[in-house]
Here is the input.
Amino acid sequence: MKNPYRQVLRTPGAPAFVSAGLLARLPISMYGLIYVFLVERATGSYAAAGAVAAASSIASALGAPVLSRLIDRHGQARVAVPALAVHTAGILGVLLAAHAPLPTSTRPLLIGAAAALAGASFTSWGSLVRARWAWALREDPTGLHPAFSLESVLDEVTFTVGPPLATVLAVAVSPSLALATALAATAAGGTALVVQRSSEPPTTRTTTAAASSAAGGAPERTPVSAGQRVRAAVGVVENAGLRALVLAFVATGVVFGSVEVIAVAFTAERGQPAAAGLVLALYSIGSLLAGLVFGAVTWRGSLPRRFRRGAVAMAVLIAPVALSGSIPVLAATLFLSGIAISPTLISGNALVAQLVPPRQLTEGLAWIGTSLGLGVSLGAAVAGRIIDGPGPQPALLLPVAAAALAALVVVACSRVLGVAPRGADPA
Here is the structure.
């Protein structure tokens, strides 16, 4: 049987930008968990810890589309390098606030502010890699399915490696060392990615200028209406199908964010805080294995239908999590529910490539990360408050309800998910 992953990795430059992107986005699975350990140790409050994690995620969700639109216009290296410098300053601010002699009431606020700065400047490295795939495979679009599947599998690799690594470093040494390790990973991986200029896709300005040159002159300037200016400012979210994806992935992000905080509190309540990393790793391993199989198969049927089935399966498979009464049961049920994650995310990212024009692909892909980030922050904050109140056990109902909501949105919006983008840019 042909190995589709081996075939796409033969694409010139692919192994280098894939490995660099993997290292750069490893901290995605670490920052939220580290903030929970860091703030809970400093304040004794899971609500404060969840609020700091939420601040980081919300800021990242708001900043990612802006950075990605700038990247589409100016190029990956020109935008990602200064953003990485600001991100580094934010993480150093978190470390300073964590160790400075501050009142207990003030410390979470300063940590949250620095974490928000770090989150707002965190580049959507996965979007940059997927945009490189789309450019590299522009003459062979059939390779996008295994390529995007590979990226989703690697996303799960980060969530398999990241949480145990963060937990071991935070519990055995200190949350500060865990945070410094995460920063080192994204700095090294991000730098390694942006210096690879040969695989970097052209910018919007470059392609426009090339088209003008091929036409034999400067582009003709046409009047632009106020409505067109508004749509240009809004960007790709003007697309109804992408808005449906955003809503579905916000709910999906609530699942991820709540599970992360609940796993920490659930295992700590039973006297085994170090088990949180293993529980979250098993959650990702289920998704990783499913993603490997899903990406290796050539599926028949429409992409929106595959996405819809994945969302419904995710809601069904996570339902038993609410009945977990022990750490082994929680780990087993999360492993089972993880099976539906990668197929859903793979189909969702592939849908973006169908729904938005190629010149806006980085921004479109970033909205997936943005919506997930918003959901993660909301899920972490709500789960923290439930844990501080009724406790971790009742909080398990939150990811179950959020997954059901995501499936409902996808089913209700099935028609718009199959609408292709308009060819012309109104701006």
Notes: Residues 237 and 243 are 6 Å apart (CA to CA).
